[in-house]
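During the second half of the funding period, the structural biology subgroup turned its attention to how the target accommodates small molecules. The most pressing case was magnesium ion, which had performed well in the primary screen but for which no bound structure existed. We therefore specified the complex as follows and requested a full 3D prediction, including the ligand pose.
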Amino acid sequence: MSLSQTAASDYTKGLWHSTSDAIRSIETFYVRPRWLFVRVETEKGIVGWGEATLEGHTEAVEGAFVDLRERFVGWDSANIEDIWQTAYRLRFYRGGPVLMSAISGLDIALWDIKGKTLGVPVWQLLGGKVRNRCQVYSWIGGDRPADVLAEAQARKDEGFTAVKMNAVESLGWLDSPAALEGTIERVKEVKSIGLDVGLDFHGRVHRPLAKQLAKNLEPHRPLFIEEPLLPGQQEEIKTLYGMTSIPIALGERLFTRQDVRPYFEAGCIDIIQPDVAHAGGLSEVKKIANMAECVQQTYDIGLAPHCPLGPIAFAACLQLGFSTPNFVICEMSWKMHYNAGEHDLLTYMFNPEVFAVREGMVSLLEGNGLGIEIDEARVRSEDLAFREGQVKAWRNPVWRGPDGALREW
Ligand SMILES: [Mg+2]
């Protein structure tokens, strides 16, 4: 039967895909501290891992996988772009954090499978390497940053050259300017030991205080300020952009090229921070990165993948970093405040040494696919504890001011 003779129903089933190695199964696993791993296996037994973590919304993303599983089991695992297009466009309702995180997890797993099938790292499939090491930054200070110097020193001793911290605790729409004073002191402390520091405003600083804080920070030259205002406020961010020389970064709550476009066109950001587990996986984030790039005088925006997440998402970010010219730095969740105790970035890996940080950088991942080996037994054990109700899915804290009014977290 020729392609032109294929019945319409065959298209909907994906039967026109050559089934050289069809998807046999798509599974999801909840693992602490707050991650959702995806395991895709092919008929030939190739296993790919993805990450669809959407912090605080695990059950919603798992719901989206009911549909993806029904649609794509039986499809050729090699046709990543067609699967992505079908998952995104065919379902009419598109975009948003839940659907895009689910697509992300599936997409990353399919790239892992393709790399393992062909015997190459994913960065080879994304155009080859443009660098040998990727700079990364770690976290200090937690949600309510206080004594940061000891943590900063510990990260420096571990090989980091840059860290990020929340700029402030919770704030009202208009707080006393005194609420901002601690931020400057903490930045000075971290910089005093020779580290660069990014400040995450976390969308919790409202406009009247954001402009004050940006102005106060300027003499201390932070690496960047992140989410200085909430997503959707591109015009207000543009005004802020004109008031400060500090690089402005955002993007963790933007999920597609359509979402980032208004910020690019407004000229209000320096660094785009798509999250590979939220923004459509490797396929879409690579396109966002290319869109942001400076070739042919387009937007001249750097890529700093957002990744306060698990090892699969981090490996995917590095694969982008090794193959993307405008990559600048990547978030790394090692010892992040959510990763308490035994559930940290390296917990579910058999080869944690590939994430070793030296001179602030992680070296080229040489393994096939994503280049990491996942401890599947441990992942399954964690997930079982969740299914049996011994472990609850993570939820973000609820913050209220002294007057009882809700505040941004
Ligand atoms: Mg952030």
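Two results from this model are relevant to the next phase. Residues 97-118 form the longest helix (22 residues). Residues 200, 202, 226-227, 252 surround magnesium ion (CB under 6 Å).
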